[in-house]
Design goal:
This protein is α/β, with parallel strands linked by helices. Helix content is about 40%, strand content about 15%.
Length: about 300
């Protein structure tokens, strides 16, 4: 895993892995903790390889982009016979030289376009959206996705703003308030404050919501449950389960050439009714059909 064991996305992936492999294989997890300490990621990767050498697994699942660049590519890709399945990879597969002799997997794509469309069903007046994401590797990946897709979105996109900490995010949010109808926050759970402390997730969303005063959305289940308005959410469970099913095929003899790289396709509509009511939004009943309705978690 690229991040740490408390990361909600990694927890979803782990649920997916165990839904397929629990009882069928002995599973060990290693976390590179790159969200909060990227410089030490290479050292954690070396330790992961030492574990690999001692454990001698029949297969490996590597979650998210940092696990590819720090672990799979330097240690496993085309170097060992062990099949490796990636999941949660936002970059293009070719960036890592995938597919490889022993590597396939499932790419991750955020449902940004679909989330904007859901927002416009709730608030038809939304014509212009702004974006904030941390100034880190994941933020850069989101920025590239938006730049590739923005022309097809149903609302005009302002340039993506990348911030170094919560104080800067507050400043940018205030600036964007008069320039946009809605704000999209992406991968903000890794954001630190100016003292380099990690604020509670809910505090990040609540602080920015208070300064923006208009709809703020995202693309993840966790963000909606902790205070943002809506999203068509991607599923970490889908990522983990799909990679596990692919790995089982490889471990039981299917050639990697017959296990092509795939992309996530599941999307779940979510609306936070606590936020919806606080913004005075009264949607048509049909908009709520087939949508998971949640309240902000305490």
């Amino acid at each position: 895993m690229s991040y740490d064991e408390t990361n909600p996305w990694e927890s979803e992936i782990k649920e997916g892995i165990e839904s397929v492999l629990k009882g069928k294989a002995q599973i060990k997890y290693v976390y590179l903790n790159t969200k909060y300490n990227y410089p030490q990621g290479s050292e954690y990767a070396r330790k992961a390889y030492a574990l690999y050498q001692g454990f001698r697994p029949d297969g490996v699942i590597a979650a998210d982009d940092d696990a590819q660049s720090l672990f799979v590519v330097p240690y496993l890709k085309n170097r060992v016979k062990t099949p490796v399945m990636f999941c949660g990879v936002n970059s293009e597969a070719g960036q890592y030289g995938y597919p490889a002799e022993n590597v396939s997997g499932i790419l991750e794509r955020s449902h940004i376009s679909e989330s904007i469309a859901l927002l416009q069903q709730l608030v038809p007046s939304v014509k212009k959206v702004a974006y904030i994401t941390p100034d880190d590797s994941m933020g850069k990946i989101h920025k590239r996705q938006i730049e590739r897709e923005a022309a097809s979105y149903s609302a005009k996109s302002l340039p993506v703003r990348q911030v170094k900490n919560l104080d800067e995010a507050v400043s940018v949010t205030k600036e964007l308030k008069s320039r946009s109808d809605a704000l999209i926050l992406l991968s903000m759970v890794s954001l630190r404050d100016s003292a380099n402390n990690q604020p509670a997730y809910k505090h990040i969303f609540q602080t920015l919501s208070e300064h923006y005063g208009k709809p703020i959305i995202s693309v993840g289940d966790f963000e909606i449950r902790h205070g943002l308005l809506c999203a068509v959410v991607k599923s970490g469970r889908e990522q983990g389960a799909t990679a596990s099913k692919m790995l089982l095929r490889a471990m039981t003899g299917t050639p990697l050439s017959q296990i092509p790289i795939t992309t996530n396709n599941e999307g779940k509509r979510m609306i936070n009714v606590t936020v919806m009511k606080s913004l005075g939004i009264k949607p048509r009943p049909i908009v709520l059909r087939g949508t998971e309705l949640v309240k902000t978690e305490e």
